[in-house]
Amino acid sequence: MTLADLNTRFGIADQLKFIEGPGGLTFAEIDNAQGTAYVCLQGAHVTTFRPKDQAEPVVWLSDYAKFAPGKSIRGGAPVCWPWFGPHATQSGFPGHGFARTVMWQVTASAALDSGETRLTLMLMPNEQTHAQWPHATRLELTVTVGNRLRLDLVTTNLDTEAVTIGEALHTYFHIGDIAEIQVTGLEKTGYLDKVAGSTRHTQAGPVTFSGEVDRVYVDTEATCEIVDARLKRRIVIAKSGSRSTVVWTPWAEKADKMGDFGPDGWRRMVCVESANALENVVSIPAGESHCLSVTYAAAPL
User: Fold this and answer.
1) Which of 46, 54, 139, 198 is 20 to 30 A from 106 (CA-CA)?
2) Do the beta carbons of residue 90 and residue 129 sit within 8 Å?
3) Which residues neighbour 188 within 8 Å (Cβ) at sequence distance 6 or greater?
C-alpha cells in the first residue's frame, strides 16, 4: 500500500499521518493533544513515545539507530515473537523471532473519545516466516497513544492443534543515567541471571545497576516502576497476559561492540520487558487467542 493509500484509508486529520522515514521505511506519525509517537510499519515497531506533559521521551531511541529493510532497530519497543531469545532447536533462526524485522499491514485506525489515537497492525507472513513458523496464527498489535502508551499484542491460533509461543515487548525506556535509577516491583521474585551463567537467584530489594544486567524474572505479573532520580520521575509499567519480566542493560563494553548505541547511549536507557519466556511460554488452544497488554505512563517523583 502506498503512502497516499495509507493516508487516504487510515490517516486522521491533526492526529495520524503516514510518512517515509529513515532508510526509506514507512512510519505512522501520531501527534495528538496528549502525546506523540512514531510507529515503523516494519516490525510494527513503536520507535519513540513522549507524553505532552513530559520534557523527555518515555520510550528511548538510539541516536545511532540503523534503519534498513529486514534489520532490527536499536531502541523503541521491538516485538519479540514467536520465540524469545534463541530458537530452541534452530541456531540459524533469528534471535527473538522474526516479527520485529518483517512488514506489518495497517488494518484499522481511530480517534478515540478520550483524545487518544489508536492504530492496529497485523503481521504479514511470507515464505521465510512460514519456513520458521509453520503454524496458522494471526498476530496483531494495537497501539494506543495518549498521555500514556498502551500496546496490545494478540496472537490468535487458527490451526487445528495448540501452539506454544514465547514473546516480549522489548521496550527501551529513556532515563537520566543508568547508575542512578532503580526498578521496583520485582522484590522477592526469582530470576535467571544470564550474566552469571544462567544461574537462578531471588531478587532482594529494588533492582539497581553497576554493570551489565540481563535477567529473566519468572512467575510475575507485577507492575514495575523505573524510579529516576535525575529526571525526577517514575515510569510505571503495568501489564496483563505476561508472566515474565526481563531487565537488561548492556553496560559500556557490550554496547561498544554492538555499534548502534553511540559513545554513551547505554547510559540513557534501560529495558524492562513484559514477556512470556522460559517456563512462562504460552500454549494457545486451537481457535483461541492470547493477549499480552502493557501500559507505560510517567509521573513525578
Assistant:
1) 54
2) no
3) 202, 203, 204
In the chain, % of residues over pLDDT 70: 100
Domain count, the chain: 1
On whether the CB atoms of residues 1 and 10 are closer than 8 A, the answer is: no
Catalytic-role residue among 96, 170, 174, 290: 170
Active-site choice (116, 140, 167, 273): 273
Q: What integer pLDDT is reported at residue 88 of this predicted model?
A: 86
Is 96 noted as a catalytic residue in this protein? no
Q: What is the pTM of this model?
A: 0.97
Low-confidence residues of the chain: pLDDT under 50: none
* Angle at 261 (CA atoms; ends 294, 145), nearest 5 degrees: 30
- In DSSP terms, 140 is beta-bridged to 122, 154
Query: Is 170 a known active-site residue?
Result: yes
| Residues 19, 236: Cα–Cα separation, whole Å | 30
- Which grid coordinates are listed for 270? 534501560
Q: What is the CATH number of the domain that holds 293?
A: 2.70.98.10
Measured CA to CA, the distance from residue 101 to residue 94 in angstroms comes to 10
What pLDDT, in 10s, does the model give residues 192-243? 999 999 999 999 999 999 999 999 999 999 999 999 999 999 999 999 999 9
Rounded to whole angstroms, the Cα distance separating 192 from 217 reads: 7
Give residue for cell 513484559: 274
**The one-letter amino acid at 244:** S
Closest among 243, 246, 299, 234 to 271, alpha carbons compared: 246
Residue 214: CB atoms within 10 A of its CB come to 18
Nearest to 150 by CA among 175, 126, 123, 120: 120
Question: What residue has cell string 542512578?
Answer: 180
